[in-house]
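Researcher: We are triaging several targets before committing to wet-lab work. For this one, the compound of interest is zinc ion. I'm pasting the protein sequence and the ligand SMILES. What I need is the predicted three-dimensional arrangement of the protein with the ligand bound, expressed as structure tokens, so it can go straight into our comparison scripts without reformatting.
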Amino acid sequence: MNASNKGTKKHAHRADYLLVTCIDFRLIDEVTNFMHHRGLKDKYDELIVTGVSLGIVRHPSWKKAFFSQLALIKKIHKTKTIILLDHRDCGLYKHVFGSRRLRNRIEETKLHHREMLKFKKEILTRCPNLRVELFIMSLDGQVEEIKA
Ligand SMILES: [Zn+2]
């Protein structure tokens, strides 16, 4: 690295946003595109957790790891907003609720909404100064905001 790189945005070491998204290999590019489309290229941190809210709410060890990391990330990068990005056809949702329930798009949305709200409440109980935004992505990359 040469001296001319000093002072660039890469050295600012702040990220207002923390994206929490699923592991799903089908949506890696779409998730990146979504964040770029929101004007957040190089402006967010990212945690990848299987099933996002559903995974964290139902697995105590994952929850512990998430909040432990969040405390540190907030300290070092001054996080202001958490973006929870679920996706349709999620393997963890199928595993927990069964594929049949998820075939109905309205039912699928309700389940995601319910789990995301549970997780949002937990985040805000522990970190009341954060904002939490909820989204769900379809497999074609289209994203809907879930209004809490
Ligand atoms: Zn998933």
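Researcher: Any quick observations?
Model: Confidence is low (pLDDT under 50) at residues 1-7.
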